[in-house]
Amino acid sequence: MELQAGFKAAGFLLLMTIGIPGNIFILFQFTYTRVLEKKLLHTNIILMALAVANLLLILSRIIPESLNSLGIKDLLNDPECKLVIFTFRVSRAMSICVTSLLSCYQCILIAPRRSFWLYIKKIVTQNVVIILIILWFINLSVYPYFVWNARARRNLTSSPYTLHLVYCDADFLTYIAYVAIGSFYALRDLFSVGLMTLASSYIVYRLLSHERSMKGMRSSDKSQSRTVEYKASRAVILLVALYVLLFGLDNSMWIYTLTLSNVSPNMNEIRIFLASSYSAFSPIVIILTNPKFDQCFVHCNRNRSLPLLPQQGSVSNGEVYYISK
């Protein structure tokens, strides 16, 4: 049992040490870009919203899971449980919705330049912030019932339709409420997965069509022509693939739990680990594929170059030579 707790603690601590610095770095870098350049690409605004949702998810779920795995008991009371569960559910939903929005937005950007797509692109581009606010409002509105009967875990009798979430229990009270609410969330997730899968498939199709159209071009022209599209779409495709893998496993387990009358805590912890993994690992994909971070790393490398102090007779005409550390 101690070995199992040790593995669980190591897993959640790994997610925490990767996810918190990664998402904070994304927020800091894009904020710095906005202040320095007085503007920010709409794609990067969406990525900032994704980083905020991921960070809230980690703070509300992974940290309590890590503390519980380390042996800290009875950490939260009833109001704190309601707040933690509510924050987790909303941030998880936002992570799903923002990833779907990102894939659809990238799909619109590379669509053919026809009047319909140009109109859609104009509408979406001008209202990215408003769309994100609407998504926050919707997800803040649909989850109060989920946490209405949430409470700190005690040695009290609960209904068979209770989710045991570390320090807290979320009791659905009746089988109808348990299945109805669970089915709604599962369908919402499946719809988001389907939407982002279709968008990503279209992105891949457009890139392959573009690749075929460039056959016979000089290698230098070919490289220059495809660089922008490939770099802009690579992160979206990788994020969607990561999402489909992790959240697909999570939702499969969630649908399975709907057939059970009493869900074990270990199954819920596995689901939480899978759902939280996307929030921890997606910053790595964003940092490795976003051009703004490439520029940041290049700038940092240049700043590491230090002036070589001239020795007697080694410098003439006031020239300064540089070496890299």
Strand order within the widest beta sheet: 1-3-2
Fraction in helix: over 70%
Number of helices: 10
Strand residues, percent: 5-15%
- CATH class designation: Mainly Alpha
CATH architecture: Up-down Bundle
* Radius of gyration over all CA atoms, rounded: 24 Å
Let me know the average pLDDT: 77
Q: Any idea of the CATH topology?
A: Rhopdopsin 7-helix transmembrane proteins
Q: Strand tally, please? A: 5
Structure classification = mainly alpha
Question: Uncertain spans, ≥5 residues at pLDDT below 50?
Answer: 308-325
Shape: globular
CATH superfamily: Rhodopsin 7-helix transmembrane proteins
What pattern of helices and strands is seen along the backbone? HHHHHHEEEHHHHEE
How would you briefly describe this protein structure?
This protein is mainly alpha-helical and 325 residues long. It contains ten helices and five strands. The longest helix has 39 residues, at 175-213.
Secondary structure: elements and pairs:
Blueprint: H1 2-37, H2 42-69, H3 78-109, H4 115-126, H5 128-142, H6 144-148, E1 150-152, E2 162-165, E3 168-171, H7 175-213, H8 219-257, H9 265-289, H10 291-303, E4 305-308, E5 321-324
Antiparallel strand pairs: 1-3, 2-3, 4-5
Helix pairs in contact: 1-2, 1-9, 2-3, 2-9, 3-5, 3-7, 3-8, 7-8, 8-9
